[in-house]
Amino acid sequence: MKTTLKKGLSSGVVFGIVFIFLLLIGFINVGSTMIGDLLGNTENVTSGHLPVNNLLLMLALMGLLNGISARRGLGEDKWWKALLGGLLAGLISGILAWLAIWLTGTLSMQGTALQDYLPSMDPEELNFLRFYSTPIAAANTYLIYFAAFSVAGAALSWLFSIRGWFTKCWQSCKSGVVNWKGTRNISGVFENRWVMLVVFLVVAVILYFLPILWGSYWNYIMGTVAIYIILGLGLNIVVGYSGQLVLGYVAFFATGAYTFALLTAPTPHGIGLNLWLAVGASMVVSTLTGLLLGLPILNLRGDYLAIVTLGFGEITRILIRSDLLTALTNGPKGVTDVGQPNWFGEVFSDVNYMHLLLLLVLIALFIAKRLKDSRTGRAWVAIREDQTVAQATGINTYRYKILALLLGAAFAGLAGALFASRNQFAGPEDFTLMVSINVLCIVIVGGMGSLPGIVLGAFVLKGLPELLRELEDYRLLVFGALLVVMMIVRPEGLWPAARVKFKKPSEKQMKDLATEVEK
Amino acid sequence: MVIYLGWRVYQTAFGEGTYGPDTWMRFLITGLVVGGMYALIAIGYTLVYGILFMINFAHGEVMMLGTFAGYFVLEVFSAIPAPTAADPNMTFLNAQPVIALILTFIAGAGVSALIGYLLEKIAYRPLRGAPRLVPLISAIGASIFLQNAAQLLFGPQRRQYQNPDLLWRGTGWMIPVGGKEVMLTYTGLFSFVLSILLMVGLVILVKKTKLGKSMRAVAENKQAAALMGIDVDSVISKTFIISGFLAGSAGVMWGIHNGLFNHYVGFLPGIKAFTAAVLGGIGNIPGAMMGGMLLGLFESLGPALLGLDFQLKDVIAFTILILVLIFRPSGLLGEALSEEKV
Amino acid sequence: MTRAVIEANHITKCFGGLTAVDQVDLVVPEHSISSIIGPNGAGKTTLFNCVSGFYVSEEGEILFFGKPINSLPTHKICQMGISRTYQNIRLFGEMTVVENILVGEHVRLKANWMEAIVHDPRYRHEESESLERAFELLEYVGLSGLENTPARNLPYGAQRRLEIARALASQPALLMLDEPTAGMNPQETDEMVAFIRDLRDSRRITILLIEHDMRVVMDISDQITVLDYGLKIAEGQPAEIQSNQRVIEAYLGPGAAALSEKFKQKKAQHA
Predict the structure, then answer these.
(1) ipTM of the complex model
(2) Mutate which of B73, B132, B152 to test chain A, going by most A C-beta atoms within 10 A?
(3) Do A483 and B141 touch (CB under 8 A)?
(4) Beta strand pairing status for C174-178 and C206-210?
(5) A402-411, C125-134, C239-248 — which is least confidently predicted?
(6) What are residue B261's phi and psi, to 5 degrees?
């Protein structure tokens, strides 16, 4: 009994606080709008009022979640206990919601300018949240809905657990999230050579036709995804393979982009170098930057390495936009009219550009895979696992760490050149710390050291936000929360790296057969 | 390289047409005031590192939320009317500035302490045994989350602290230095004195109280401490609470002294305070204090001394960080970090 | 004339105020099994770490086949032909069993990153050969069939064997084992003893080990060096060490030697 009450209480409190938080950041509104869009239930033109049904639906959903969470881990229980727990959760969160709605509603109607302090609380929004009626009536609605639906949620959960459905479903979902056995099996299929070839051909054909078919908007977005895949692969070599946590990766991206820009743009230097050579130059300069960063940091441990490289990234940005280097970099204004890729003078269309990007992504994936399954790759993973022992086992750790950094920088340099070329612009504000963090998230959330994971990560973290345009404001919030949640729930990433499976060499098998025959 | 820098310092310090002693005094005062705040935040980093061996990336955001909390309290107080015969427009803030300030600090430090506690409970505790990378990423995630939560809750615009008239920014005593007059702002002095008081308080806490002893024990050896009957989890929570408390105080000070702030206010000071903690020797409390003051001074005096642009003062902080970590990773006061051997 | 694989003279290593190893000389003859023993805190692991390059001794010189290896980085030492295992097993947990062994072979292989990308014939040849050698070692230590298991999933005994396999992969002339039988039951211990003997006999590897299990030490050692409080207090063959008074007292305390003499006499009387 006590546990039921405790769970109900804690669930209620948590949901209540979450609700207030979401209320204050305006998410309740946005959520309702999204539900409305989903159901085709949009603004009533005459009254200018947004349909409140969406809001009710949202409350219902939240209530259900609350109820379900109040029953988490309780398994089979007496029905009235389950309902009681749900009711308690619903009442607590309902009361908190009641207070919030009543308070904000009353203050707003009184004319207090809440939005000066809490921008999401502007009167129009609050009006909607109050169902366009009085604060008390609205607050009551919230309370009733929360209480009722929490009970419903608890009942649902109880029903499922009684039948065993829910627990089984929950378990398999949980283990699905935590284990994803499916992905492990898929890797097995990929070992067959012929399957690989067929898959590759199919993918190649698809990749050829897609950019033509889906239009320039998607080409742009997928282009960004492609560039970030390359960045992710590069950082993966540094973080995923060799385990060096570099937070200033954007520095290499920036130097690559700026080298390309400065070599091809008419101002400030007017060098006008051939674009393909410029790309090569970008990679070289980035690699040199990698050397510059890499040598001093060789002796640093995990956390320190992170901070120093973060500092390095910031220094790069500050220097680029500083007055000190404006003569070189054009300062905060950035470099415009950067060269666009062309083939003997004919400028690439966005379809051509996309093809180019896809080709480069495939090459990058190829290189990354070859490196991973080689002596070099194994040396890196050994360094990541236990640097001291790796060195005692014969690996020159300094050399391999620098190598990882240089290769990673080269990838970033390439990505930078492509980025500048596509945007035809390079400016210091494109290379902030957030870029480094974005790439890091792609690597970690996708799966450290895992190539399919990184591709997936790039799609999820760069592609999805485009699809969910309405949630743009909340993107970083979700980012941050996602990182924390991923680390707690699934630190190995969405598609974890699988170690290569080796088969016994065939001569051995012959020898074994021979000995077996002898027996 | 050192010679070149030394020559530049000489030039700017003693050359003609450069800064007079009054300007140097001004730099010095700024350096000390800022240094005090950095020191408080740095102590927070060092406390957490000493006990968990992780960098609390979100510490800057803990400070930021304290700044916001203090702001709101001041706003409330300045909205409460307390009319007197002399001044019908008088607000509570100005009628009872001392009480108001005390409550502001309590609110700011309290909120930060709470956030610190929640941070540990939600984002760090589940990851206690995991490899180094995992809690670090979680900390980064928490930092981003808090920063954006603040932005979404309160909006991206800069807000201004409503100091009581008594402690209005830009007012202070005029001190004659080298023929001219330099202002020693009330807010600056207030912040500095409070910083010192808090630091002294912390040292007393760590050295004399039972909690302090427990903290040191847990920092040395968690298992042994647990075997001795110390509730390790509770000590860790309290460490976060204390470090949050200090950061929150620094946050409120920042608001009172600098006035303008928004949700980014924690980012740079956070990194710089970390630099300071490393400079002094991470895990070493007096080191963090010293590092904070030194960094404040470097930042303030550095650009002038070296004849560089003030734009680059952040670069100075980062460069110091890098140099210290490369050449003396144990910091100025720290013990040599033993690479874990066989 | 047997060469000295290791010749260490006047090794001294201090940590702050504590002298962990004090002027210790050690000679390890080729193709022998030499043991270092001593009570806890005697400085065995410290000496071990000095020889394997993990610590740099304050004083003294360490020669490997006559070449000084004092301040060489550990990967160079491995390259020269010294491999070791660790008291608390340190495998590359995420990697599979066979990958751990392949990493062990790293120092004997030549492929660089560019060849890895290109997969030229020489690279492929080297990879397949190294894989064969790895599987051979796998079988030698008795881990066949476990090649694709992540190392951290192995049972304790198997992990120890894998660590030895990894150390053997670099084809060392000297194999240093840090408490190889720690945590093993008598049967596993016997297997390990036979195994170590075989390493010396059929693979012609010199073995230097730290051990606490006296039965093992007395059974297989050709030479035993005894340390106590950082000093070498005895050296010689098992029989000599067993009856050495100083050694007995180091382990059992002062007066123990006399006690043990008394018991020996009593036993002789009753017999």
Answers:
(1) 0.89
(2) B152
(3) yes
(4) parallel
(5) C239-248
(6) -160, 160
